[in-house]
Amino acid sequence: MMASTVLFVRNLQQGWAMLAWFALFGLLIVLSSVLSVPAEERKAGRAFRRGDYAAAADLYRALVEKRPLARNYAFLGAALGASGRLEESVEASTEAINRDPEYGLAYYNRALVLRQLRKKSRARKDLERALEADLPRRFRSAVRGQLEELR
Predict the structure, then answer these.
(1) Can you say where the TPR repeats lie in this chain (predicted)?
(2) What is the greatest pairwise CA distance in the chain?
């Protein structure tokens, strides 16, 4: 839709039209991004970000019951790990990996918990696997730092 209107707006020869066009489509992009994440997932994410890890774990557990996606299991694992429920965290992260072996964030989350459990060899393997898998760029440097600490 955006591409189909650009020629029309460009031909208007008025600066305000192009600015309005950018603002409108920028707003549409932001809204579609926000609305593409289910409300329950946004609520769980907010609980996690404010440090209410037990509530986040409960919300993510409800999410995996509705939508058993690797992403939801990985976030459940992170919330459980942050709330000190380490064995449950490893289980949730392992389930995320079983559902999507290329989901790098699940390996990273599990590695962090395995380090806390003093299972450094397994943690190192997960960190190496996280780098090979689909891992968001912002986590790559953290993974490399964790690997350096384990060496």
Answers:
(1) 70-103
(2) 66
Q: Is the pLDDT assigned to residue 49 strictly greater than 90? A: yes
User: Is residue 20 located within the same domain as residue 63?
Assistant: no
99-123 CB burial, b ≥16 within 10 A, e <16: bbeebbbbbbbbbbbbbeeebeeeb
Taking a C-beta distance cutoff of 8 angstroms, is the pair 148, 115 a contact?
Answer: no
Residues 59 and 102 in one domain: yes
Q: Which of 91, 33, 100 is nearest to 69 (CA)?
A: 100
pTM score of the predicted model: 0.75
Domain that holds residue 125: 39-150
Q: What is the mean pLDDT of the chain?
A: 88
Which amino acid appears at position 134 of this protein?
A: D
- Which residues, at least 6 apart from 19, have a Cβ–Cβ distance to it below 8 Å? none
